[in-house]
Amino acid sequence: MQAALQTRTGRRTAGPAARRSRTALAAGLLTAVLALSGCGAAGDDGASSDRPALSAKRQDKADSAAGEGEADGKQAPAKSAAPKKPDPASATHVIRTAALSVQVKSASRAAASARTVAQNAGGLVADESTEQVDETHDSSHLVLRVPQDAYDRVLRELSGAGKLLSRTSTAKDVTDQVVDTDSRIATQRASVARVRKLMDRADRLADVVTLEGELSSRQAALESLLAQQASLKDRTGMATITLDLTEPETAAEDDDEGPGFLDALSGGWDAFVTTLRWIAMVLGASAPFLAVAAVLLVLWRVLLRRRGRRAGAPPAGE
């Protein structure tokens, strides 16, 4: 029985000691876990704190580079802001023509106004003619050349100068022709340059003569292409407007009053003069016949008188 009591007493005394050791062990583990977690957090905080520092350094470098660019004359922003020039090969080349017929009160004044409009737009008068239709009416014909960007505005101003009778306009796309001409010019120039190089290297006279003839023909072809290019440039750069200005016909005013005494006298006098004229013409036409008839009549009377005298004379023996 004493052994049983000792055994129970030993278990009771051993229980609190084991609990203390377990509690101490748990506390130690908890301290170790907290220490490890603190080191990890510190490492993360350090890394996170280094990132803003690096980004701040990069920002400082970018700011310094921008400052150096501005100190050099701010050329970089100007280049980026400058608009790109259009490629001439991709531009559209159009030949524009128009024909207008406008009725105005005064053709000469309207022609002067049209000249002013064309010159203010940067154009010119290629041809102009004014003629008198009758004693009271004039008409003007003008051929105007204006820049393409002012074509629509000039056309509107000319159409509003008076009563628009007719208007026609055409637009012809010659982009392919322009591109083809430019390409042929470049090829021909290269060909001329090659012939000139061969002439510089030629030693024999026959070769020089042959190359000169070839150079002349190729140079003539190049000049022809250059003339075509200039013509296309002129027709696509300047639009052509043909303007016809006419004045309205004056309508005859109706006279409601009847003919008066002066009108009747004038009409009678005209009739009298006309009659006398016709009589004079008849007399002039019949004068030769009347003269011949008068001569015959005189002769006939002379003969009758002689016969009467012979008939009334006595015989010779009585």
Describe this structure in words.
- This protein is an alpha+beta fold.
- 67% of the residues lie in helices and 15% in strands.
- It is built from seven helices and five strands, in the order ααβαββαβααβα.
- Strands 2-3-5-1-4 form a five-stranded mixed sheet.
- Strand 2 (124-132) and strand 3 form a beta hairpin.
- It is elongated, with a radius of gyration of 60 Å.
- Residues 1-15, 33-83 and 251-256 have low confidence and may be disordered.
Structure summarized in a few sentences:
About 65% of the residues lie in helices and about 15% in strands. With about 325 residues, the chain is α+β, with helices and mostly antiparallel strands.
What is the strand content?
15-25%
- Overall, the morphology is elongated
| Structure annotation, total helices | 7
Spatial sequence of strands, sheet with the most strands? 2-3-5-1-4
Calculate the terminal CA-CA distance, rounded to whole Å. Answer: 255 Å
Weakly predicted, low-confidence segments: 1-15, 33-83, 251-256
* Amount of helix: 55-70%
The biggest sheet, with number of strands, parallel, antiparallel or mixed sense and barrel status, is: 5 strands, mixed
State mean pLDDT (0 to 100 scale): 75
What is the structural class?
alpha+beta
Radius of gyration over all CA atoms, rounded: 60 Å
Query: Topology as H/E string?
Result: HHEHEEHEHHEH
Q: What's the total count of β strands?
A: 5
Task: Fill in the keyword field for this structure.
318 residues; alpha+beta; five-stranded mixed β-sheet; 7 helices; 5 strands
